[in-house]
Amino acid sequence: MISDHFRLAVAQLNPTVGDVAGNADLVRNARRKAAEEGADLVLSSELVLAGYLPEDLVLKRAFVRRCMDAAEELARETADGGPALVIGTPWRGSDEKVYNAVVLLDAGEVRAVRYKYDLPNYSVFDEKRVFESGPLPGPVDFRGVRIGLPICEDIWNDEVCECLEETGAELLLVPNGSPYWENRAEERLQVVVSRVVQTGLPLVYCNQLGGQDELVFDGGSFALQGDRSLAFQMPQFETALGISDWKRDGETWICEQGETVKLPDLDEANWRACVLGLGDYVKKNGFPGVVLGLSGGIDSAICAAMAVDALGPDKVHAIMLPYRYTSEDSIKDAAECAAALGIRYDTVPISEPVEGFRSTLSGLFEGTNEDTTEENLQSRARGVILMAVSNKFGHMVMTTGNKSEMSVGYATLYGDMNGGYNPIKDLYKTQVYHLAAWRNENMPAGMLGPGGEVIPSNIITKVPTAELRENQTDQDSLPPYDVLDDILECLVEEEMSVSEIEKRGHDRALIHRIEHLLYIAEYKRRQAPPGVKITERNFGKDRRYPITNRFRDRS
């Protein structure tokens, strides 16, 4: 029994969805380290044994059984007298329904099971498809301490925590699977403050770390005292084991000792999210590295820098794929970028395949004028070559299109949209420029790339161009990116009407044109590779529009 003190370990781990044995080993190793620190209890994140989000894996009976078997094996290991465990796992109840559960493992047994009550069904979440909602939970008894175990969404409304406080909980320990987007850490803090104000109880927030397809879980686990003061703050974007000491104070508990780290600012957080998402996607899917076309432009340059920060220079292969419209400046800039990053750099001219396509199609195209069809042959030839290199050597092709271009369809299907993953898919062009300049002046913790100027300044300052025809610039087809991005943020992030956007000073005809381009590019976006979610409304899991869609806002 615990008298008036106990030591808590918060395990901020990076599980892999579906790797139940590997995830159990992560918990096992965290428990071993916690035991060395004298911890009494180890708290881990939501569905840590399954990895979060498991999506329809939960519908597989064998998968749920494997997770439960792993939990029961970990329970047996607690018979050694070491720390107890609080872990998240899918759990099939006696009613044969599957729940998002948290289990308390201690003294060789599964001592308690609690089910998630409030299943999220918005944004990237659709838990109601695969889980059953549990009843309102009561606290569990841990060696004489009454602990409430709400799960993630359970604290975003007041019902669960109110029930736990009314039924005698002394402390709230919350396993979470909360993905990153801009300013998300502040949102979480405000939610936790609300629950602490409501209940008067201290609350420990344990979040998952790591990339899972389009989502990045940023960790940032923390705790608030019952008076709303910060008890401890763990880092974002890195695994960690946080140790804190707790002392009984009447009917509640006070954290006596816990480390507090400073969280990164928005620029660093966005950069590290892109790097973590890309790195985990490559490593968890077993690719030996990445290959990308390095054009001398800003998008491919920043993607190369992110790849080096995520994987190291030896796992990044850049290829320049020049054609007659490729400028000497672009060739020079790409070579300098590759040299600054220390990556392998090859040149593969595309004249022969492009001219071969043109010759093959000359009969069919006879009597027509050249247009974007011939321009796109260049992009598609580059895509074929990069995929061939990927097939031969196993490296994943990185896609390098930004959110602005993907919004309006300024990209070529089966050309520059080829690839397995895109770290800047959810960054607008203006954000890309800003982050490129930021990275040249900053070296975030944990990055594997070099410091200093890794993206040549000429790449950042020159006029953007796809170089698919003579003297082409992006602004031949698009408005200036600061204008385009503001309109797109209004349409995509805010769902504002044309009239509302016009009041911001934008031309009405231009807004209608951008809205039209946004809608007709939906079919392209459906075929695009996944990429890191940075904004609150990314293309894919968040913003879900029909491909066939004749609606246009004429307000």
UniProtKB/TrEMBL annotation:
Please state the Enzyme Commission number of this protein: 6.3.5.1
Q: Which Pfam families match?
A: CN_hydrolase (PF00795), NAD_synthase (PF02540)
Organism's domain of life? Eukaryota
Q: What keywords tag this UniProt record?
A: ATP-binding, Ligase, NAD, Nucleotide-binding
Pathway(s) served: Cofactor biosynthesis; NAD(+) biosynthesis; NAD(+) from deamido-NAD(+) (L-Gln route): step 1/1
Tell me the GO BP annotations in alphabetical order. NAD+ biosynthetic process
Q: Which InterPro entries match?
A: C-N_Hydrolase, C-N_Hydrolase_sf, Gln-dep_NAD_synthase, NAD/GMP_synthase, NAD_synthase, Rossmann-like_a/b/a_fold
Domain (CN hydrolase) ranges: 6-248
Signal peptide range equals none
Q: Does the keyword NAD apply?
A: yes
Which reaction is catalysed here? Answer: deamido-NAD(+) + L-glutamine + ATP + H2O = L-glutamate + AMP + diphosphate + NAD(+) + H(+)
What cellular component GO annotations does this protein have?
cytoplasm
Q: Give a GO molecular function annotation for the protein.
A: glutaminase activity
Q: What family is this protein classified in?
A: In the C-terminal section; belongs to the NAD synthetase family.
What's the name of the protein? Answer: Glutamine-dependent NAD(+) synthetase
